[in-house]
Amino acid sequence: MRAAQRKVEQQIKSEVRKAERQFERDLNAAQRKAESEAKAQDRRNQQAVKREVDKWARDTNRKLQSGATRSRPAVTYRPAEERTLGPVAREAERQSVEHPERRDVFLCHAWGDRQGAAMDLHDLLEGFGVSVWFSEKDVALGTSLVREIDKGLRMSRIGVVLATPEMLRSLSAEGIAEKELSALLATDRVIPVVHGITYEALRDESPLLASRSGLSTEEDSLEQVAVKIANAVSPEEGQGAPA
């Protein structure tokens, strides 16, 4: 009887030791896997940042080499525009020092404007030497639009929101533009551009955006608006940003 009891106890102890060793092996394996995944994710993050920096450097060098930057015509600022653009200009200058790898501008626009007003504003800004994140050109086929927009927002210093009839429809439908706008409104780095609508119409759809005075093509041409944005986010020598 005692021999049988000792045998059972030994078997139990053996099974416990076996279970403990297996648990230790499983724990070590889980730790190694977690460390490996963390290192891999860190490498991916570093590679993503490097790609953004390299792209910014290539774009900047291409502009310098091509000499495509146009001279900016003189513009006159209204008091409300100076109050809006002055703080944005100071923030853009601060970010240009702290984050030289970032684009000057993230262009928030409605999908329906991508080949129209948004493309026109993008081309004008680029022509005046402003680096612009523009989904129509910066989101590659087969990539996640939402994820690429998230990176574009992170890698841009200032947000320009092109408020048009298409934008109002997109905001009403809570499309992608609504998500971009929500992210931008959480910052103090937004320049609204009202184009083809009134501030009253914008206020009916987005009171928060309309509460931030910006620029309007009711009073200026789209080219003049682009010059004012360019002067704020990337001032030229001898042509300073609004005070």
Features:
5-stranded parallel sheet; 243 residues; alpha/beta; 62% helix
Question: Can you give a write-up of this model?
Answer:
The protein has 243 residues and is an alpha/beta fold. Strands 2-1-3-4-5 form a five-stranded parallel beta sheet. α3 crosses α10. The relative contact order is 0.13.
In terms of quaternary structure, the protein is single chain
- Helix percent band: 55-70%
End-to-end distance: 98 Å
Q: What is the 3D shape?
A: elongated
Order of helices and strands: HHEHEHHEHHEHHEH
Order the strands across the largest sheet as they lie in space: 2-1-3-4-5
Structural class from helices and strands?
Answer: alpha/beta
The amount of beta strand, in percent, is 5-15%
Task: Please provide the count of β strands.
Answer: 5
Main β sheet profile: 5 strands, parallel
How many H/I helical runs?
A: 10
In brief, what are we looking at here?
The chain has 243 residues and is α/β, with parallel strands linked by helices.
Secondary structure topology:
Elements: H1 2-66, H2 79-98, E1 103-108, H3 117-127, E2 132-133, H4 135-138, H5 145-154, E3 156-163, H6 165-172, H7 176-185, E4 190-194, H8 199-205, H9 207-210, E5 215-216, H10 222-233
Parallel strand pairs: 1-2, 1-3, 3-4, 4-5
Helix pairs in contact: 2-10, 3-10, 5-7
